[in-house]
């Protein structure tokens, strides 16, 4: 649009490629326009490959709403800039680095200059544009405060920890937060010699350059970690800018697949409390055929009730769906062990990618969201016995001291409900 109604603030949002990045940015754009009266322009960066069908569908659906403008930046070719086997995080960072000139040019030539720019987590290199163009810039962390606390502390751990994080004998103390167990670190921290760790370390240092950080959480859910992030004696000495809670922002539901979704919820409602394991690798996560078979065997032999969001296997990395479409001509069910669906009938449910729209909605039957690293790396190689150990050990880990990332989030949620949580900086929240 060439003009903006008088009194409206103009916010520019930039998303990196990938469904897990586009969705949160679009939902934030909806919140800003519908609830806070902003004029919003959303830029979406493109990989060198064609956008996946779900990406195109999502962008087109958002454009049809007419709530804000959506502009796709020119695609960039990173051939020769990264190793063909580089992780998706490395590739994503290089893509956004190469897209920076196009985004700066687009900002500079807008007829109505933005009042603020909001960037997703993988765009910290773009924060410098705020200084150059004299525009306030914010980073949008679409996960939660617990992740942000660890993320901000990575540069400190990099200086103080010798060797690989996963080989350390003791948990890592994050100021004001629950400790992080060595085997519970996020994927980029698994191998300090990998380029994705270098990129993540850089991002953790750069995020402090912006005018503020937006988090998809709310005060009562993570009151303890939020307090640590805002305490000048704890994590606020690392990131001194304001921290804003803007959640919960969730994906808008589409009027499709309602029958199957209701059937899934009905099945959940019939299960006893905390008895179901939910297994999903996100919008881009995929397994190889061998890994899928191993996971199926682990789920079956564990005897636990489960919901498993199944995707077609890939020969690429465990994030193979981020930069390419899944082939509709391949029957993903054919990769399951013979008789698996029959033997687990009544105990577990395997659903296709559309089942991600029917992820557990906080019902009491959900036991734990299981995170299994199944990438073929030195620290991640898992087999049937490891799957069984993870599944059978989940109950012990839930109550263990430290509790890992999931345990910390669970504990904080409970604490927040008990003390009511203090109303802190709640910007854009409802």
Automatic annotation (TrEMBL):
The lineage of its organism: Eukaryota, Viridiplantae, Streptophyta, Embryophyta, Tracheophyta. Keywords: Glycosyltransferase, Transferase. Transmembrane segments: none annotated. This is Uncharacterized protein. The keyword Glycosyltransferase applies. InterPro entries: UDP_glucos_trans. Residues 401-430 are annotated as: Disordered. GO terms for molecular function: UDP-glycosyltransferase activity. It comes from Trapa incisa. It comes from the Eukaryota. The keyword Transmembrane does not apply.
